Please model this.
Amino acid sequence: MAPDQASQPALAIERLDDGAIWRITLGGTKGNILDGRLMSSLSEALTAAVTDRHLKAIVLEGQGPHFSFGASVPEHLPATAAGMLAQFHGLLLQLVDASVIVLAAVRGQCLGGALELVTLCHRVFAPKDARFGQPEIVLGVFAPAASVVLAARVGRGAAEDLCLSGRTIGAEDAFRIGLVDDLTEGDPADAAMAYARAHLVPKSASSLRHAVRAVRSDLRATLPGRLRAVERLYLDELMATADAVEGLQAFLDKRKPAWRDQ
Model:
């Protein structure tokens, strides 16, 4: 990370409507990379959100033209992959356990780990020029969390298409398959704020949290075990292959990978 980036806060929190809405903006790096620093900051924000009994919704967005390019590719290499996955999956579990409604406002690119994060948000807002993808397979790896949670949102066929092809789709296609809930004409954060004010702010924060726990009871019960299983497949088997390391290193070297199919 460049020195000027290290000095920038990893995220910003704006408390609105007498604290009923938090607007959290991811930042800190070009493309709002979900590196260790940003994940720690978002985890701290979620911890604070749980204890704020007046909070009714979080609007989550990225700084600048993009939501996020996803997790840090260097942190996927064998020496750091275990720590990176443990931290990221812990963050996803924390998001589910917090029982705080999170509305994702997606501009520009939403890729990889960022899409896994957005998949677990309660509602996704995006303009027609937003782009979504799980490109991990292009780098010779796979998306552990998406392999577990994406099908519940978009159906198995669409989830397998995104995870196995690595292709990026536009917001209209994402809306068609259920990945995006609201196509917006203007800023998706404005649309998310309007939704929160119309449908969430008038309600009891306590009752909303109990309702979230109820509608996500199956997810809260099954997600930890399923994430552990795919994490072991990723770390113990995938990362022992030549092609997984080759794909990641080729990306960092800005060259075409030389696959050995092993």
